[in-house]
């Protein structure tokens, strides 16, 4: 059985990637992973308020659970039970490390399609995963 890892972030592209994985790897083991990026908490003025980080993290975890419920609703259409995991860290590095440390065979993920200056400044999670992954990566547009 092939082990497939599908990063999800709530974007249309990550939903497309999950749907692709469900169609192409229906009889395999599919895990959806959501990475909570702690850097996001530091970009607001509220980050300096005591207790904000705990509140932010709880909200991020609730969002992850909501994403997993939506993913399972889609998987139910294919009669597939998904495994789910939430990790904390930089998204591209966390996805690659998780896949490597947990013996996944393939990563299927969406492309955000950034171009130009935003791609140069922000980088591309998908591109970084492709460059660093020890396993094959399928990018779904």
Explain this structure to me?
By secondary structure, the protein is of the alpha/beta class. It has one domain (3-140): Rossmann fold (3-Layer(aba) Sandwich). It has five helices and five strands; from the N terminus they run E-H-E-H-E-H-E-H-H-E. It has helices at 12-24, 52-76, 91-101, 116-122, 125-132, and strands at 3-7, 29-36, 83-88, 106-110, 137-140. The chain has a five-stranded parallel β-sheet, with helices on both faces. Helix 1 (12-24) links the parallel strand 1 and strand 2. The protein is globular, with a radius of gyration of 15 Å. The model has no long low-confidence stretch (mean pLDDT 87).
Which helices and strands occur, and which strands form pairs?
Blueprint: E1 3-7, H1 12-24, E2 29-36, H2 52-76, E3 83-88, H3 91-101, E4 106-110, H4 116-122, H5 125-132, E5 137-140
Parallel strand pairs: 1-2, 1-4, 2-3, 4-5
Quick tags:
5 helices; Rossmann fold; 5-stranded parallel β-sheet; alpha/beta; 5 strands; about 140 residues; about 45% helix; single chain
The level 1 CATH classification is Alpha Beta
- Output the strand order for the largest sheet: 3-2-1-4-5
N→C terminal distance:
26 Å
Helical amount: 40-55%
Give me the CATH superfamily.
HUPs
Order of helices and strands: EHEHEHEHHE
Q: Could you tell me the mean pLDDT?
A: 87
Major sheet summary line = 5 strands, parallel
- Note the beta-strand portion: 15-25%
Categorize the overall geometry. globular
Weakly predicted, low-confidence segments: none
Query: Count of DSSP E strands?
Result: 5
């Amino acid at each position: 059985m092939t082990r497939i890892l599908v990063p999800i972030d709530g974007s249309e592209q990550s939903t497309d990637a999950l749907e692709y994985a469900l169609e192409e790897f229906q009889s395999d083991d599919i895990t959806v992973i959501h990475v909570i990026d702690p850097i996001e908490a530091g970009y607001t003025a509220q980050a300096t308020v005591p207790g904000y980080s705990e509140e932010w993290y709880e909200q991020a975890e609730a969002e992850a659970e909501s994403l997993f419920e939506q993913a399972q609703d889609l998987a139910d259409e294919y009669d597939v039970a998904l495994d789910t995991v939430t990790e904390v860290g930089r998204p591209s590095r966390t996805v690659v490390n998780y896949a490597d440390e947990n013996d996944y065979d393939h990563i299927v993920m969406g492309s955000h399609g950034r171009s130009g200056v935003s791609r140069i400044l922000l980088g591309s999670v998908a591109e970084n995963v492709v460059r660093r992954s020890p396993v094959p990566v399928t990018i779904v547009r």
